[in-house]
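Problem: given the chain below (113 residues), write out its structure.
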Amino acid sequence: MTQPKPTVDFRKVSDTVRIANDSIEYEIIIIEPGFDSWLATAKPRNYFSLVYLENKNRMWVSEWNQRVLDNRYNQNLYEMRIDYQPHIRYGFEVNYLLYQYFSYFQQRYKQRL
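Solution.
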C-alpha cells in the first residue's frame, strides 16, 4: 500500500521562504536575506537523491541543534532548534530546500556544520 504524496505549500515573500505540508503537520520558514537569490544559483533538484539529502539533513540538524544549546557558538546565528524527525518522510522538496539552506548558511557565515 502506498501512501499518498503530501502536497507542499511553498510560498516566497521577499526573502522569506515557507515550506509547509499540512497533511503531516510540519512547517519550515526560512527568513534569510539573500537566500532566495542564492538558491537560484544552487545545484538543481535532479542533482541530488532523496537519500543523500535526508542523510545530510539529519547530520546537519543534529549539529545545528547542539550549537543552539552551546554558548560557545554565536547565539545570533543559532537561535532556534530545528525539529527534524528522522522517522518522518518529509519528501524531496523539503529536504532539498533544507539542504540548500544549510549549504547557504555555511557559505555565508563561514560555519562548518
